[in-house]
Each structure stands twice: as structure tokens, then as C-alpha cells.
Give the backbone structure.
Amino acid sequence: MTTPTNDGTEPRGIPADAAPMEYDPSVPEVDTSQEHLAAIVTNEEILALPTEVSGFGAGNVGEVLLDVKNLSKSFGTVKANQDITLHVRRGEIVALLGENGAGKSTLMNQIFGLISPDTGEVTIKGDKTPIKDPKDAISRGIGMVHQHFQLVPVMTVAENLMLGHETTKGGFLDLESARVMVRELSEKHGLVVDPDAEVEDLPVGTQQRVEILKALSRKVDLLILDEPTAVLTPQETDELLGVMKDLANGGTSIVFITHKLREVLAVADRIYVLRHGAVVGQVDDVAGTTTTDLATMMVGRSVVLNVEKPPATPGEVVLDVADLHVKDDRNLEAVRGFSIQVRAGEIVGVAGVEGNGQRELVEALAGMRKVTSGRMTLGDLDLTKANPYATHHAGLGHIPEDREKHGLVAAYSIADNLVLNEYDQEPYAKGGVRQFDAVRANAEKLRDEFDIRSSGVAQSAGSLSGGNKQKVVVAREMSFKPKVLMAAQPTRGVDVGSIEFIHKRIVAARDEGAGVLLVSAELDEILSLSDRIAVVHGGKVVKEMPADGADRAQIGRLMAGDH
Amino acid sequence: MSEWISRNKMTVGLGAVVLVLAYLYYFADKTTALSMYRYSWSYAVPLVLCAMVGVIGERSGVVNIGIEGQLLVSAFAGFFGAAYSGSLLVGVLAGVGCGLILGGFLAWTTVKWRMDQIIAGVVLNIVATGITSFYYKPGQLLPALMPHVSIPVLSKIPLIGEVFFKGTGVIALLAIVIVIGIHLALFKTRWGLRTRAIGEYPSAADTAGINVIRMRLVNVTLAGALAGLAGVFLSMDSTSSFERGMSAGRGFLALAIMIFGAWRPLRAAAAALFFGFVTAAASQLQADRVINVPPQLVGTLPYVMTLVVLAVAAGKVRAPGAVGQPFVKEGK
């Protein structure tokens, strides 16, 4: 019911029966001589030409802009990209689909000149010269919006846009022209931002607009968007997809890197699927494919996208949070009166755009952050002032959002990581002395049970892949049979196979009687796992609803603060 | 202009109050006031220059804890360069040159070879102390005094002109130009925008096509010249001799001043003047026998102030985001 399937109603690409692009033949002043055509460099100039001359228009994609042939790149023994061949035409939206670590970003970083390929050839607009650095890529019409925004937080929008191609007047920066540029681009592409706003004060959705504007300010022909929707609300995502289509209709080619199948089906003209660094599939007929097909290609085997779970049988309340107030790192109130009850045997999903107090809430519940006011109880224990040691021993399992920072000690072995919060308890320690046999036995058992792929339990946790690291954390937090399991972004940066596994385990924990509090920025995850959904905005629950029959669009509006 | 004032109410207000107080004292006791003010400025000159070294370095993302060493070696090279060659100009060039070389040393070790920035700075300081002590020879004299000049018109302004433009050393005059120049450059030019970008968020600068490594190398090296100038001022202008360890922690005070000045050149200059004034006031009070404490205790004042200032400033000002982190491009 929850994972959206391609039912054919979603708009995608440029429809085959689209009206030809508007071209006014009454403008006779266009120079169509060969000399002039050869000198053309920008989209504006090409679009000024009659369609029959440019060969370009809606539904009629233009020449090959980017041509990648047999590209390979290795980091040490890891083959990040193997023999990749693909091309992008003018005005096309090409999706690059693959799991984390499939080599999508590596590929794009080579096209953008951030890293250089070992072998292979990248041709841009017929020019085979290797791309030296980002500057070279930019000057050849390639723009990239990185997954982690490449904006200087303390600078204004205008300053960020001019960085690298500043205009000066008498030796001094010409900020006014940068402001004008921001306003003009904003207007032209319908991306509204204040040129004088400091980037760090802007919400992530707006920061991304700034990133896109920054790329557009460089007269870009090919725009690479690396996981652009990861931080957006559903509404912002839809808006972005709209912008992408407008850009493509205006002649900009787009490479859209993502692992979200729904979005790919919504906008892509063509799809390349990457796995283990190689192109394993190409879809030219996007209308004729489904999310299941794509997921199978991505993972290499068929995956169950829908979590199958029997109806919940909620018991008594195990976790009771009442009117909680918590401050963030900047000492501003991030959680403002959060209340929720979680019953044994149910999964409560906390949906919300990141930065609405979820992180602070989770940290407060785990005992990692001070509670300003309010109360939280687990069973009949008051945990309001408890530290992480106490919350764990009270029966709270915590899968933290940042596993590298709070979930694991990278230098420790898998075995030690699996007893990080029980190391001083029997049977892992007796009379203050650690019992390594017990630690190892526990590790061997959990490794099999949780399918942690490693060379052995003595391997350091830091050397595992993201999915396996997460399985270590999940195994530890579930194996002590917690009364309440709190999972924050449990599948972030984890491959599809592991996601499937972790989701199953969370449902299994519920069925064994644990109360589960699931905090996730992935609405699909919330929708497919939860029995009950609490939407947060501004640090408190704005609405609670049963997951059955929950309306995606309504949740999206609530997440955006429209309530 | 009016917009600028409304944005900087605190600064303008504080500046006005300080100026009024300074003039009141000036008109009350002209001789004492002037001598105190002139002492403050002469004390502040090397601090201001060294603070600029820190500002440029940290704004580019490189901590320079070796300013102290750059200062000491330059003071040494300046003094003995002039004494042996018999030419002040040779001395100045030797001092500034040494500042540049040590700036280059710091730049290449930390930026290019990604050595720990603190350790590189500490090494520089230790080497500086060793070399200058080992080659030190007593009994040398400068061939002449450094030229002091008065700027027409400007030197006629009561107080300000008399302190900054009347019979002042060339380096002190230059320091004023340098501070204002760096301030404008940092906030109003292409170089400044890029420098702030590589110190705040180098990968953003990198993806915008800016060569982060090269820019850091150049900035840190060139800033060394300012430490050189400060060293020359110390041994050839404010005193006419070189002594072992004569930098006396000024390179570190400069870092405190940089922080107190929130990594802004003009504010740092004001902070340096404040340091100078407090020192001058303490000596004056002692000379007048208003306070009766041993001179050694008065001598510790700048260092005690550093502690206080850092404790007060801590958490209120924000360092450039990427300070202390070597820039590594992924996959290269």
C-alpha cells in the first residue's frame, strides 16, 4: 500500500505527443550561416535558432553533450568505476540510479574534474580533452550540485554565486552586479531567494536553490544533481522536479543521481543503473518500467520493497514522553513541548523534515542531551535525568542517527562493538575482568543472525561497509531485547539489501513485544513500517494518525508546517 | 554610510566614547597623555603587524602559531644585517626576507605536506630561539637610526596627528596603510572573497574552480613578510638593539589580539592599541607612584590581559570554519 508503484499516472519526461516548441517564424533576424553556427556556445543562442536549424526543441532532444566511453577508476583495490559507457543529449534528463557505493558520485566527480579517471574517455560537446579540474569543467558548461552543499555558510547568496567568477569594479568586488545576477536568474527560473541572505540562515531547501542558481550562473549546458532530494520535503521535492523539467525544456541537460525510484520515474527520459561500479542496465523506455524492475536491477536480485507485516497488537504504554523541551547545540530550543506515547508491540513513526528537533529529541531520550523541562518515563522508571548508561539498562535500545559518531568505535573489533553497552555485565565480564570467550561467542552468534558480512569478528568495525556497520549497531541494540527500541534514520546510507533486512528486524522486534519509536526523514520508510505516525514540525507533534490509510500528501503538508 | 553606521552601532558608539575620553585627557594633561598615547602605539605596531599575519593565515584556514619565531628571526636578521652591512636598507630587506622564508616554510610543511599546523609552528619557534641565541653577538651597533618623518597637514591634527603622523617611524606609518589595506582587501576584493572562502569552506571554493592549495601557500608565505616587518620594527626602530628572546611572546599576544578582533583587521588594530594603552597606563601609574607594585608584576600585564581577553572572547567570536584543517581533495 505504501511504496508507490508506477501506475502510469505520474507525469514523466517529455510526452511523445507534446506540442512542438513555440517558435515564432516572424523573427527573421536569425543568422543561420555555418560560421555563426560554429561559434555558438550557449543554450540561449541555440534556442534563438529555428528548430529545423538547431535540431532542438521539446520532444526533440539535441546533439550528444556528454559522451563517456569505457571509463574506469580504482581506489586502491576497490574498483569504483569499471568500463562505464554512457551519453547524455541536450535537453535530456538522464537518471543515474544505484545504491550507495555503486560508483555514481565517483563517476560524476570525474566528469566534473574533481578526480581524474584511470582509463577511458570523456567527451564534452565533441571535445575530447581530459577535464583538468572543476574550473575546466565549469568553463566547458558543466555544473554540479553536490550532495553536501558546496556553499560558504557565512557568506551571502550573492557572494556565494559570484565566488570563482567575480566581477570587479576598479579592483573592488562588484556586489551589486552579483545581486542583479541573482535576481535575474531567480526570476527566470522561478527560484526565489534573497541575494543578501546569509546562507547559514536559510533552510536546506532554499540552500539547494542557491546551489542550483550557482550552477546556472555559469552558463551551464549539463547540470549534474547528486542526490538532490535527500534533504527535501515531499513538496520541495516536487518543486525541484518541476524546476528540472523546466530546465530540460529550456535546453539544459540534467544528470540526476539518486536511489529514489519514484522520482526517477517521475522525471527521467532515460535511466542508467549502476551496480558495483559498472553500468548493469539501461532503460530508454521509462514509461514501460516499474519500481520493482529498477530495484531488481539495482540490487541484482529481486527485492521486496513492501514490508510485509501482520497487524500490530499494541499492549500497554511502555514509553511516555510528556511536554518535553530540549535545547540544541546553539542553545536554542529545538524540542518544544513534544509528547508521545509508545505502546508495547507497535511501531510509532516520527515523520518530519530534518532539523525540526528530531535529533535533539532522540538524544534527550537516549540520555545524551539535557532535558530543559518535561518528563519521560519507560515503564515505571523516570528517565528524564538519566544518562545513556541508565537508559540502556532501563531497557531502551538506541540505533543512533550518526552511526560513525555515536554507534560504533571504528577502531574496535566487531566483537567489542557488539558488547559496547554490556561489556561490564555478566557473562562478558566477571569480577571486573573481561571474558573474551563470551564476547566472541556472542559476536559469532550475532554475526550469523544479523548477516554481518566480514572476514571475522575480530575485524575492525571501521573497515566494514555502511550497511554492515549498521547491522552491527542494530544487532547490538536488538539483542538485549529492549523494552523500547528507538531507531533514528536506521537505513540512512545503507544499501537496499540491508534496508530490507533491517526493516524486517524492526518488525520482528515489534512482534516480540518491543515498543518501537522510528524517527526517519524518509517518508517512504515511515509509511511502510509504522503502525501509527506522528508528524513533527517546529519541535512538537502537530498531528498523530494511524498509518493505515495515511495520506502522503497530507503528511507532506504537515511536515512543511502547513497545519 | 548611514547604513554602515546603523549596522555597526556598537563599534561606532564605543569608538566615539573612547575618542571623547582620549581627547578629554589630552586637553587636561597634554604632555603625559601624548607620551602615553605614543607609547601605546609604538607598543601596538609589532602586535598589529603580527595580528595581520594571524588574520591572513587563519582566514585562509592555516593556524600560524609560529609568528613568534618569524618575529624573532626577522628582528635578528634585520639588526645584524644592518650592523654588518652598514646599511639600514639591507637590514630591513634581510628581516622581511627572513619573514617570507619562514612563512614559506610554514606554508609548505602544513599546506603542501599536511604536517600538523601546531607542531610546525612550534618547531619554527624552537628553531628560531636556538638560531638567534647561538649566532647572537653582543656589542653590535646599528649604522644609523631609522628615519622618522612627519606627514604634512595630517601631523597638525591634535592628538591623532601628533600620535600617528608626527615624527613617526616609517614602519609605523606603513602599518597603518597595511591594516587598512588588508581590511579592504579581505572584505572588498576578489582576493578577499576567495581567501575567506578557502578558510571557511575550502571544498566550496574548490568546486568553484579556485586552487585552494596554491592560494593558501601564497597567502601564508606573503603574510610572513609582515612578521618580518614587525621584527625589523622591534630591533631597529622601537629599540636599536637585538637581545636574546626579545620578541617576548608578542607573536602569541598577536594571536590573542586576532581573536579579540574577531579575525577582522581593523578590530584587531583597535585591540592592539587597547593592549598598548593598558601597558602604558600601568607604567605611568607606577611612575607616578599611584600604585606601588614591583615592575616585574606590571610587566606581566599584557600576558594576564591575554588570558582575560581570551576568556571573555571565548564563545562570542567564531573562528573561520576550516582553520587548522589541511585541505585534501578526494581521490587525488
